[in-house]
Amino acid sequence: MPPTLAPRTLRSYRELLEQHVLPALGASNLQEIRRRHVKDLLADKSRAGLSKNTIRLIRTALSVVLGDAVDDELLEVNVALGAGRRGRRRPDTMSAIERRQAIRPLTYEQLATFLSVAEARGSRLEATLFLVLADAGLGPGEAFALCWDDVSLVDRTLRVERAVSAGHVQLTKTDDSRIVDLTARLVAVDAVVALTAAVSFQ
Asked: Are residues 158 and 97 part of one domain?
């Protein structure tokens, strides 16, 4: 697989290949694998009740392996790419509505309860970190990679340009930085100290 894959992604792809792809296609030579085999594999996983996102990841993991085989001139074509007829949706295809439905954010009431429980358990730092994730929309890896210089309490902004993955600090997935506006409660007097403490917690 490409060395550019993050360790966690590489680990996830390996697990998907071992659990789903190898049992179905492992006995075949690379040159014997056809597009119909990939389509049948994905269809079987759909009938087994796997989510479309899981099926998409299975196809992606297989596509990475077959793409490497094409690069190494072991195959002429990556049969996992575009595995489906034109006009027919693949088992791993998610509509815009389905993508939105798959996102299940906490309600304001649920978030308030979650934060109060976290703080009641004696960890103000963790509660503030969760608040940063919720209000600033950061991923956990992005939050753990924050530095003091990323926070501007004057401008009430937070710069996000790094993330922690498998214990290593690296650029974000898109390799881009972004500026996030801090909410009023993140810059409130009693939250500032906790916020800067959370930022330095790495």
From this structure: no
